[in-house]
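Supplementary Methods. Inverse-folding protocol.

Structures were first reduced to a discrete structure-token string of length 122. This string, shown here, constituted the complete conditioning input.
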């Protein structure tokens, strides 16, 4: 009888370990998108740090905005009037800078005004 109980305990422990493993392996692609809002003349938040596979969703909250990539390591451009959203999944590590062309100034690679960045960890 003790041998049977011991086997049952091992099965329960193995199942518990397997369940814990499944819970800890979360695919960032299945997680909720990170939202960056265009409010007035700023992004909120201006900088986000995420894991690979995360979706960033830019949303126009007030006024008229667009979101455009700059810095040379990615390409993206979407209009964002109030109530409209645009999204992009970030699959590789790096820093991806973006801005609103209506509320920022870009001289060379230096942005002032409504500028932001997505930092994707490797």
């Amino acid at each position: 009888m003790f041998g049977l109980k011991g086997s049952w305990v091992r099965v329960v422990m193995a199942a518990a370990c397997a369940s814990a493993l499944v819970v800890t392996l979360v695919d960032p692609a299945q997680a909720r998108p990170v939202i960056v809002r265009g409010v007035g003349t700023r992004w909120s938040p201006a900088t986000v740090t995420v894991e690979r596979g995360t979706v960033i969703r830019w949303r126009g909250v007030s006024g008229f905005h667009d979101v455009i990539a700059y810095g040379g390591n990615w390409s993206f451009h979407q209009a964002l009037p109030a109530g409209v959203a645009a999204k992009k999944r970030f699959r590789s590590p790096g820093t991806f800078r973006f801005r609103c062309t209506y509320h920022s100034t870009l001289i060379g690679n230096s942005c002032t005004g409504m500028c932001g960045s997505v930092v994707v960890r490797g």
